[in-house]
Design brief:
Blueprint lengths: L1 H42 L7 E7 L13 E2 L10 E8 L5 H15 L6 E5 L11
């Protein structure tokens, strides 16, 4: 009887652990789709070209305060960690009006104070010689 009960407990633990992994993958895919949608939407704003978002999460586990400071948005599913800041690298962000607009939009959408949003211009690609 004890052996049967132990087997049942192990089966229940196995089922719960496998379902937890599946749910975690679904949550990560959902967050990744939402992030891609946010990037696509921000690229629709006039004056903004390509854009990449990097999130900083509250993480008390790391001994080095600079390790894992910014993580790429596509791998930013850190459950239980609160969003602390965001780095935005965008084409067209050299214009102060664009920076202000992006900062305001992201502050509203992400419910994050504007002083925790850093916006920098993306390095220009392609033809760097303006005389050609």
């Amino acid at each position: 009887m004890i052996l049967v009960a132990a087997v049942i407990v192990f089966v229940i633990i196995f089922i719960n652990s496998s379902l937890g992994g599946i749910g975690g993958e679904k949550e990560q895919k959902k967050e990744s789709r939402e992030l891609a949608a946010l990037e696509e939407t921000l690229m629709q704003i006039e004056g903004i070209g390509d854009i990449q978002l990097y999130f900083h999460y509250k993480n008390g586990e790391s001994a080095d305060p600079l390790s894992d400071y910014f993580s790429p948005a596509t791998a930013s599913s850190k459950k239980g960690n609160d969003l602390q800041g965001i780095l935005v690298v965008a084409e067209g962000a050299g214009d102060l009006k664009i920076q202000s607009r992006l900062s305001s939009i992201l502050s509203t959408v992400l419910q994050l104070p504007e002083h925790r949003i850093v916006i920098v211009e993306m390095k220009k690609r392609g033809n760097t010689n303006e005389n050609e």
